Amino acid sequence: MSLGQQLAPHLPFLRRYARALTGSQQHGDSYVKAALEAIVQAPDQFPRDVDPRLGLYKTFQAIWGSVNVANDDEPEAGGEGSDNESIARARLARITPLPRQALLLTAMEGFTPEDAGYLIDTDADEIDRLVSEALAEIEEQTRAEVLIIEDEPIIAMDLETIVRDLGHEVTGVAVTRDEAVAQAKAHRPGLVLADIQLADDSSGIDAVKDILSEFTVPVIFITAFPERLLTGERPEPTFLITKPFQRSTVKAAIAQALFFDRATVPA
Fold this sequence. Notes:
- The structure is a single chain.
- The protein is an alpha/beta fold.
- Helix content is 55%, strand content 9%.
- Strand 1, helix 9 and strand 2 (169-174) form a beta-alpha-beta unit.
- Mean pLDDT is 88; it is low at 76-82 and 86-93.
């Protein structure tokens, strides 16, 4: 099996991590593209002594680290010509601190502390310390009002419990597109958790589009088929949770979505 064939199944999940890391589909996917280009240009430098998924993430982390540390810029050229202060603020807002990287690698991507340590060049004990630091920071995070769009009662109850345990308030639980839009208009949320397939065969994606046409709000999508929304070929979610989910995954995703939402608010 070729290296490309070995890496292909892992690309959707690397996109998920990259988007959560940068808070943007565009920037996350551009880092993934840069990592793939590096592998194509120098296949002999790809780590062959570890699992292909681990090697893929290691290559990505090297690109992420070199760009942010050395250049403090994205891997692709571009920009809209805003003033230097605004550009600097935007770049800083996209740099996820090391503790949050450790949390995302373990809670969202499912790496062991040992593997996460390999990816960010430290040991398992340090990963545990970094994760604890990230969780402590999350405890101090500004509380949000959350709208849950989910038609499965047990899953909705589980999400509601997780959200409340994090100290956030649940504004409502909607089971259809129309209900979700109505609830969002009646009580504007600070975060939306949205299932893809809803009770009346309507789409959570369409519900979110309707809500976003009214106001801007961070959104986390929940789906049993994440690879369908992580192709990198069209506008897709920045934050995505896979069913069945772990509480730690939901916690990390909520914290990261709110982290970038707060970071983009002008000082």
